[in-house]
């Protein structure tokens, strides 16, 4: 969202959630709404707001027809300063596979998947239409797991990264490049000829190197050449990047999409790096969903990593945020991609919805 309205180190402008914690100890946070609880609101209340809970996510839908003209104007005026500030700025969005509903065989699952992609595409195209320059990097872990399960293979992970043998690499390529990438591009192109699909192998966008350890064909980002992405952005297009890449000898690797997003954001000198995932943000205590940290600095994030508080898939996200912020990216955000239009709520409203991280190294972090 907002460019720093949340109180973080180096910023003296707090927002309305002015609750601080001791950075040397346990976080003091506001308790979240318990899962399973939803407030009943009659149609017409709060300007036509309806609240419902689905899979533990509380959402609020506001019917435009029930808003007064003044309320509609207020919404547009609230967004105006952010539209002006971010016009012409690159925003790298990592669309995680966990942010997408399951693609199971039942029709309801397929419909949820299509609806989720359509809502994501609406947000990205709206961002482009307001002058922002979105670049999408996508994962597809659950989708890879699904295909592996059909083939009788059991996924294995170490420190949030997939152990990848030669067969798993081929499955990852098939799913990421041939399925997920195509579906995201198609959803965006419903709005016109706006998106182009790529992988790290195209135009040597990413040169990989083998990752140390016994992970198989899992790579690290060695070099990013963003020329092809910059060309597409300058032409008004939205690049959609799948995260497979070759090394200099042509050997293919599966690279963690969080790492690719962080490296690409750094190479593009992006204004923002955004992770859409299946949790509300970074937690002070990984196992406690009520300990979401709303804003923190790179220094505090490093402390959380050093203390072992970021675990599983959140660890590579935290590391990618640090790399990007220390390379010149101004803001990193971790958002719950299951919440409809979460990026619009974060970028264009005065009050944030996920975790925002800035590069400043002093001060306390803001929780809420």
What fold name stands as the CATH topology?
Carbamate kinase
Spans of at least 5 consecutive residues with low confidence: 1-5, 7-62, 362-368
Helices and strands, in order, run as EEHEHEHEEHEEEHEEEHEEHHEHE
- Tally the beta strands: 16
The helix content, as a percent range, equals 25-40%
Number of structurally distinct domains:
1
Gyration radius over CA: 20 Å
> DSSP strand (E) fraction?
15-25%
Structure description:
By secondary structure, the chain is α/β, with parallel strands linked by helices. It has a single domain (45-358), classed as Acetylglutamate kinase-like (Carbamate kinase). It is built from 9 helices and 16 strands. The strands form 4 sheets. It has an 8-stranded mixed sheet, sandwiched between helices. Strands 8-9-12-11 form a 4-stranded mixed sheet. Strands 1-2 form a two-stranded antiparallel sheet. The longest helix is centred in the middle third of the chain and has 24 residues, at 166-189. The chain is globular. The two termini are 15 Å apart.
Key features?
Carbamate kinase, four-stranded mixed sheet, 368 residues, eight-stranded mixed sheet, 16 strands, alpha/beta
The gist of it:
The chain is α/β, with parallel strands linked by helices and 368 residues long. It is built from nine helices and 16 strands. A hairpin with a 2-residue loop joins β1 (49-54) and β2.
Write the layout of secondary structure elements.
Elements: E1 49-54, E2 57-62, H1 69-86, E3 90-95, H2 107-129, E4 133-138, H3 141-150, E5 157-158, E6 161-162, H4 166-189, E7 195-199, E8 206-210, E9 218-224, H5 227-234, E10 238-242, E11 244-246, E12 252-255, H6 257-267, E13 272-277, E14 295-297, H7 298-306, H8 314-325, E15 331-336, H9 342-348, E16 355-358
Parallel strand pairs: 3-4, 3-13, 4-10, 7-10, 9-12, 13-15, 14-16
Antiparallel strand pairs: 1-2, 5-6, 8-9, 11-12, 15-16
């Amino acid at each position: 969202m907002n460019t720093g309205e949340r109180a973080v180190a180096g910023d003296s402008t707090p927002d309305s959630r002015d609750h601080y914690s001791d950075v040397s100890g346990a976080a003091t946070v506001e308790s979240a709404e318990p899962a399973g609880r939803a407030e009943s609101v009659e149609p017409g209340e709060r300007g036509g707001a309806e609240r419902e809970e689905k899979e533990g996510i509380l959402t609020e839908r506001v019917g435009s027809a029930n808003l007064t003209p003044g309320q509609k104007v207020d919404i547009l005026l609230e967004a105006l300063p952010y539209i002006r500030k971010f016009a012409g700025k690159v925003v790298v969005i990592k669309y995680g596979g966990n942010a997408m509903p399951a693609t199971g065989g039942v029709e309801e699952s397929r419909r949820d998947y299509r609806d989720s992609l359509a809502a994501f595409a609406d947000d990205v195209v709206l961002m482009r239409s307001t002058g922002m320059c979105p670049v999408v990097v996508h994962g597809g872990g659950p989708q890879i797991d699904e295909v592996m399960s059909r083939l009788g293979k059991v996924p294995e992970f170490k420190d949030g990264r997939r152990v990848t043998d030669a067969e798993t690499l081929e499955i990852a390529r098939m799913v990421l490049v041939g399925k997920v990438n195509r579906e995201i591009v198609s959803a965006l192109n419903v709005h016109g000829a706006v998106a182009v699909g790529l992988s790290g192998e195209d135009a040597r966008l990413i040169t990989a190197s083998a990752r140390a350890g016994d992970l198989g064909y899992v790579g690290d980002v060695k070099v990013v050449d963003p020329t092809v992405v910059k060309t597409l952005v300058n032409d008004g297009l939205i690049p959609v990047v799948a995260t497979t890449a070759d090394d200099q000898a042509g050997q293919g690797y599966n690279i963690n999409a969080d790492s690719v997003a962080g490296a690409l954001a750094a190479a593009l000198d992006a204004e923002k790096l955004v992770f859409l995932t299946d949790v509300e943000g970074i937690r002070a205590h990984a196992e406690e969903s009520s300990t979401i940290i709303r804003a923190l600095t790179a220094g505090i994030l490093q402390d959380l990593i050093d203390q072992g508080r970021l675990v599983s898939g959140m660890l590579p996200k935290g590391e990618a945020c640090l790399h990007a912020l220390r390379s010149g990216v101004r803001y990193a955000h971790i958002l719950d991609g299951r919440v409809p239009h979460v990026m619009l709520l974060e970028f264009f409203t005065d009050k944030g919805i996920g975790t925002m991280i800035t590069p400043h190294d002093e001060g306390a972090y803001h929780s809420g």
